[in-house]
Amino acid sequence: MKEINEILKKYQLKPHRYMKNGKATIIDTEMGRFVIKKNPKNKKIFDYLRSRSFNYYPKLLNEGDDEYEITEYVDDVNYPNEQKMLDLINLITLLHNKTTHYKEIDFEDYKQIYEDIKNNIEYLNSYYTDLITLIDTHVYMSPSEYILARNIARIFNALNFCNYEIDNWYDLVKEKTKQRVVVLHNNLDLSHFFKNEQSYLISWDKSKIGIPVFDLYILYKRHGLEYNFEDVFKQYEQSYPLQKDEKKLLFILIALPPKLEFNKSNYLMTKEISQTMDLLYKTEKLISPYYTEQSV
């Protein structure tokens, strides 16, 4: 707290109330309300965003070498989350459009993605084969084991799809000479989006340059069960159409099942497995029309 007070003193801010909010601290002062948090490693991200005319983040009070970052506090208007999700995706298309650039292919980048996904598929195949073999030896299955056993085919189908498609994706990118990259927020969550007179994105700590689909992937993994992502992806592509290899990579990433570890209570494991199966089913429905169109 002493460090924070020294920074506030430097900017002539006299706090009279502190409220902890995750990694940030909300501070009430005579000059208004502010948020202070440790400066992200990529401090220059806001300079770059400003250079691209993207100003949809809380106003910075301080910049430079300070250990802490001070921003204005942004109030959020209360309105339906379904609309809020579409507003968020509109802002992401704006971010991607304004920061798009093309660079020479470093094929090692694609090779690394390919090998990471292939190794993950191989590992998960082996893991779930061993797990279901063990469960089948039990005379009486627990409720969580029973749900997994009833739905194990869905996991193997997803792994087979990903294994087939990652090879197709690799063949596609081998023909490319340029790679399309953008600024990725890389930490998308509905809780990181605020709206009043304008829209704001917070929590830029993990931002980086990369392939645009990774923002969509993170958002889907966090909110895929809550919202209609057919509408979300359609909204995104109206303003920022994905290239064929990008869309294929996105579908592979969202279709990959997680590793389900039996390290919680039976109640929590039953809930986690049920939600995983629901998301796998929802993902099948989301991406299957694309492959139906391809086969026509």
SSE topology:
Blueprint: H1 2-10, E1 15-21, E2 24-29, E3 32-38, H2 45-51, E4 68-72, H3 81-99, E5 101-104, H4 107-136, H5 143-173, E6 178-184, E7 193-195, E8 199-201, E9 208-210, H6 213-223, H7 229-239, H8 244-255, H9 266-295
Antiparallel strand pairs: 1-2, 2-3, 3-4, 5-6, 6-9, 7-8
Overall description:
The chain is of the alpha+beta class and 296 residues long. The protein folds into two domains: 2-73, Phosphorylase Kinase, domain 1 (2-Layer Sandwich), CATH 3.30.200; 84-295, Aminoglycoside phosphotransferase (APH), C-terminal lobe (Aminoglycoside 3'-phosphotransferase, Chain: A, domain 2, Alpha-Beta Complex), CATH 3.90.1200. Helix content is 54%, strand content 15%. It contains nine helices and nine strands. It has helices at 2-10, 45-51, 81-99, 107-136, 143-173, 213-223, 229-239, 244-255, 266-295, and strands at 15-21, 24-29, 32-38, 68-72, 101-104, 178-184, 193-195, 199-201, 208-210. A four-stranded antiparallel β-sheet has the order 1-2-3-4, covered by helices on one side. The protein has a three-stranded antiparallel β-sheet with strand order 5-6-9. The longest helix has 31 residues, at 143-173. It is globular and about 70 Å long. It starts with a helix and ends with a helix. The model has no long low-confidence stretch (mean pLDDT 91).
